[in-house]
Amino acid sequence: MPPAASRADAPGGPESDAAVIQRSLEEPTRFGEVFRRHAPALHRYVARRLGGPDADDVVAETFHIAFRKRHRYDPSRPDARPWLWRIAANLVRRHHRTETRHYRALARTGVDPVLESFADRAVERVDATSLSGSLASALARLSRGDRDALLLVAWGEMTYEETALVLGVPVGTVRSRLHRARKRVRAALATTATPAKEDHR
Fold first, then answer.
1. For FRET with 106, which of 13, 16, 77, 162 sits at 20 to 30 Å CA-CA?
2. CA 25 to mean position of chain CA atoms
3. Is-contact 8 2, C-beta < 8 A?
4. Alpha-carbon dihedral angle through residues 8, 13, 16, 21, given to the nearest 10 degrees
5. Measured between alpha carbons, how far is 17 from 35 in angstroms, rounded to an integer?
6. Which DSSP symbol is given to 117?
7. Distance between CA atoms of 34 and 18, rounded to whole angstroms?
8. Tens digits of per-residue pLDDT, 84-133?
9. Each residue's pLDDT tens digit, 108-120
């Protein structure tokens, strides 16, 4: 369900993103509200993929592009997240090599990039350092399309339908990519899982 700030206008409630964007055509400063609503979450998502410095650049460019193209925004879509994430996803693709290096660095350093959204329950039995390294290595080996789908759902908190909008593909393609990506990630995590111990007193 979209966040309250992005739902269709309701009496006494906040304006939808679409309404704010429409108003910004006449009052450009109003677009700042879209930034305030979505920049923090978008930055967290991009930072997980590229690291902080590149995330700063990508988020800034995302909103610069969105502002310039706001006259093209479809006002029938109250929530601007898929639109903004699609712009960001296109920019992230330009950093494909940086992203792969980022995951390889995570694999070496053991920094946990948060995995509960798509990992097995076996995660609970795995040492956090080795797990995050295994996950990062698995992410580095995924194809660009599979990784985009997985991380938009897991870290971007997008629905399958929103992910399809972001990537410009059918929902069925999103499901297929997620299935492949999850299978490969779980296989990687399973190699680091500690077998359940025998009953001991």
1. 162
2. 28
3. no
4. 150
5. 10
6. T
7. 9
8. 999 999 898 877 666 666 666 656 655 444 333 334 333 333 344 444 66
9. 655 444 333 334 3
- Report the alpha-carbon distance of residue 180 to residue 173 in Å, rounded: 11
C-alpha span between 188 and 131 (Å, rounded): 9
In 3D space, the residue among 41, 89, 80 whose CA is nearest the CA of residue 61 turns out to be 89
Total count of residues recorded for the chain:
201
Verdict on whether the full-model pTM lies above 0.70: no
Q: Exposed, middle or buried by CB within 10 Å (0-12, 13-18, 19+), for 64?
A: exposed
Joined tokens for residue 58: 């990508």
pLDDT at residue 183 in the model: 87
- Read off the tokens for 55: 């995330």
- Contacts of residue 131, Cβ cutoff 8 Å, sequence gap at least 6: 112, 115, 119, 123, 189, 192
